[in-house]
Amino acid sequence: MAGAPEDPPLDGTRVLLGVTGGIAAYKAALLARLLVQAGARVDVVLTRGGAHFVGAATFEGITGRAVRGEVWEDIASGTHVALGRAADVAVVYPATAHTLAKLAHGLADDLLSTTLLAATCPVVLAPAMHTEMWQHPATRANAVVLAERGVVLVGPDEGELMGGDAGPGRVVEPEMAFEAVTTALAARGPAGGRDLAGRRVLITAGGTREPLDPVRYLGNRSSGRMGFALAAVAAERGAEVELIAAPTELATPPGVTRTDVVTARDMHTAVMARRRAVDVIVKAAAVADFRPEQAAPGKLKKDRGAPAVTLVANPDILAELGTARGADPRPVLVGFAAETDAVEEHARAKLAAKGADLLVVNDVSATDAGFEVEDNRVLLLDRRGGRAEVALASKRTVAERILDAVVVWLDAPEQG
Ligand code: CTP
């Protein structure tokens, strides 16, 4: 019976194993064996560099399947797309500095890189290279880009390297890579990681800008990273994602439809126009509560003295969504709260006042989390009195936890 405890842990799982050109390529044979023993169907893609270190016959013997190497073989069957789509998880062991660079930039010049570009499954990379290469700013930057995109980097370890060197750069042992593969698979959840398939999710992100004159504005410190992480993760989990973004330098995550706005009023118009078309609205944007009553048509000149600026209230988009929805459970409304004191008490009051279902609470008095930093720590409150703390983690991980709560809410709104 499938899933019975005596079944091997990866029974029927399709694993794509990429082997690139490092001396550690010989250890990939051991990883292939661990995967096969656990019941996985393993497709090995051996790059030209990898083939210098270990032969295809070794992997064919272990996996019982043909090893692929060239993108130009078997063009008609679209090998790279087929392999990428079929995989439940991909692991590159060892992953050279060049491989990291190619994947970070989306280059696709051989079968492994084209396959990984076509794959939507979790990807695990086990970097292996000389210490200087691992510590080079280019490699560091590539590793950060990949991690932000959700790629799992396992290792490298510290130890003996090729040519008698020693230091960080040694590939992790096959057992460790095997564990990273099983963890990445488990993290996809019961629906194979696509628990938002068929859901339409609208996310707002970034800080709005309220013009004072043609060159100046009132703004805030929101970077947009939390909202963009939510958009990326929601799309990966199968949602149709619309992102309404206030000005930010961030790149649009793959598969996300983006609309750029500048002011709170632009955002208000864009959100209200879509509110009936979506299942969930996540208001991660930091919306200016006030705007200058009038933006000066020309640049304000210093020699005319300090201008008197009158501020007027902007629409409260979330509160308006709450009111417009009334007793209707859709769209599920997720708000954010930035608080500095009596955090939980103020947040509970905000949740009720805005008529939201879930509130993601940031304590913005903390310096290691929240605005302009990579990590975040939040408190999740729901309308029924539930609370959960998400410990300091990357904004992607926090996004995963927020969306877990959204999925629960989508599945049981009638209890609200
Ligand atoms: N929000 C909104 N429209 C506004 C102000 C805020 O939709 N004009 C949304 C934000 O996107 C966020 C939530 O309301 O999801 C709470 O934002 P926050 O700044 O914490 O609260 P405010 O309502 O502005 O209250 P205060 O500044 O007094 O804490």
Write up what this structure looks like:
This protein has 14 helices and 19 strands. The chain has two domains: 14-188, Flavin prenyltransferase-like (Rossmann fold, 3-Layer(aba) Sandwich); 200-292 and 306-415, Rossmann fold (3-Layer(aba) Sandwich). The relative contact order is 0.08. The radius of gyration is 25 Å and the shape is elongated. The strands form five sheets. Strands 12-11-8-13-16-17-18-19 form an eight-stranded mixed β-sheet, with helices on both faces. It has a five-stranded parallel β-sheet with strand order 2-1-3-4-5, with helices on both faces. A two-stranded antiparallel ribbon has the order 6-7. The chain has helices at 28-37, 48-53, 56-63, 79-86, 97-105, 111-118, 131-135, 137-148, 174-186, 225-236, 264-274, 317-325, 343-354, 395-411, and strands spanning 14-19, 41-46, 89-95, 123-127, 152-153, 157-160, 166-170, 200-205, 210-211, 217-218, 240-245, 256-260, 280-283, 290-292, 311-313, 332-339, 358-363, 375-382, 387-394. With 416 residues, it is an alpha/beta fold. Residues 1-5 have low confidence and may be disordered. Bound molecules: cytidine-5'-triphosphate (CTP).
Q: What's the short story on this structure?
A:
Strand 16, helix 13 (343-354) and strand 17 form a beta-alpha-beta unit.
Question: Layout of SSEs?
Answer:
Elements: E1 14-19, H1 28-37, E2 41-46, H2 48-53, H3 56-63, H4 79-86, E3 89-95, H5 97-105, H6 111-118, E4 123-127, H7 131-135, H8 137-148, E5 152-153, E6 157-160, E7 166-170, H9 174-186, E8 200-205, E9 210-211, E10 217-218, H10 225-236, E11 240-245, E12 256-260, H11 264-274, E13 280-283, E14 290-292, E15 311-313, H12 317-325, E16 332-339, H13 343-354, E17 358-363, E18 375-382, E19 387-394, H14 395-411
Parallel strand pairs: 1-2, 1-3, 3-4, 4-5, 8-11, 8-13, 11-12, 13-16, 16-17
Antiparallel strand pairs: 6-7, 9-10, 14-15, 17-18, 18-19
Helix pairs in contact: 1-3, 1-9, 4-6, 5-8, 10-14
This protein binds cytidine-5'-triphosphate (CTP).
